[in-house]
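Morning. Coffee machine broken again, so started the prediction first thing and wrote up yesterday's gels while waiting. Chain of 181 residues, entered below exactly as on the submission form.
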Amino acid sequence: MCSSDLLDGDSLGVGFVQIGLTETDQKTQRVNIKYVPATQVIWDRHNINPEKSRFIGFIHYIPEDIAIQRFGQQIWDLNHRTQFIDTDSLTPIRSLRIIEYYDLGWAGQDPTYSIIINDFNGEFIKHEKNPFGKVLPFACYTNWIPPGSKMPIGRIMMQISTQEALNELEDNMRKIGRAHV
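Came back before lunch.
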């Protein structure tokens, strides 16, 4: 887990890190983790708790040089987007949006791993057996799942209701004060 994951969980209700495998120079694999903002993670919403999810997708924005190296010039030319503007130089930042998708298998099929361009309706660049087997490669921090809730909630949701109650109390105090003047 990392600090950003915990901050997302605390404020938004859930935070994620993606677990990956990196090949070293000695041709061995090393486990690594990467924080992925909660707004860039798609998980099985049929399960309130992400830990019970049957699939997960991580949305990544890949810079031009890395995208061309990994996927080729043609994929880049057909699919890149201008996502952001660099505020220092006012130049557009172009990137390739991909979804790294993992599932535990559907209808008796083996678990799969896919890289999909742009969105779930996009082109599959890679579709193969899940290298993690029957495991989804993520860790998450879930703040609180209140009874009857459809999703985990964080401090922001709890602060909203508290602030609304304070606002209502303040309005009532103002009305009382005006009535006695």
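The mean pLDDT is 84. Going to sketch it on the whiteboard this afternoon.
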